[in-house]
Design a protein that fits this description.
Pfam families: BPD_transp_1. The protein is mostly helical and 221 residues long. Helices cover 81% and strands 0% of the residues. The protein contains nine helices and no strands.
Length: 221
Amino acid sequence: MKTDLTEFYPVIIQETINTLIMVGITLVLAVLIGLPLGIILYATGRGHVLENKTVNVILNFFINTIRPIPFIIFLVALIPITRFLVGTTIGIWAAIFPMTLAASLSIARVVENNIISVDKGVIEAAEAMGSSKFDILFKVLVPEAAGSLILGLTFTTVSLIEFSAVAGLVGAGGIGYLAFTYGYQRFDVAVMFVTVLILIILVQITQFIGNKVANIYTSRL
């Protein structure tokens, strides 16, 4: 059965909005969790300002255990926990929990790697001026790495768009729901084309905005 795209536009618009809601809420939550987690990962590393081997090893083990798991498997594996915490395994909020957890760990690693890349001379200069460990972390390292962090968050946002499409396969709604329910199950090439096109447009817009913001920030340094 082929879908009449003329009558289908309201559904397309609604599911696109659902995708944006999933990605937007997840990104905010993931940044709130992943940013401080990444700073802790860096700070507790060997030779860094708050060196703590125990904390660093535990965090690295946790992140390195979860990150390699494909999101579709991770999503399904978390269903019992999602049902317990959210009360359902279907819908936007059921998708936001696993998406947030996966994205938080990705952001944490992005933050750690970008802060590590900051020139050590900048840290030495801050220490020579008597800056506290807190000041070095939040007034020197984070601002210096901010341009790269913005690009890293852009990459994570693109990944979240992909995650939202996968989440649609298990009833979370969004573009993935359209592609699976109306495109794949009904063998409707037109719907598949539209959903893929929307995903491409969302990714292009996200990448453009991320690059633009990073360039503006970098040019002001």
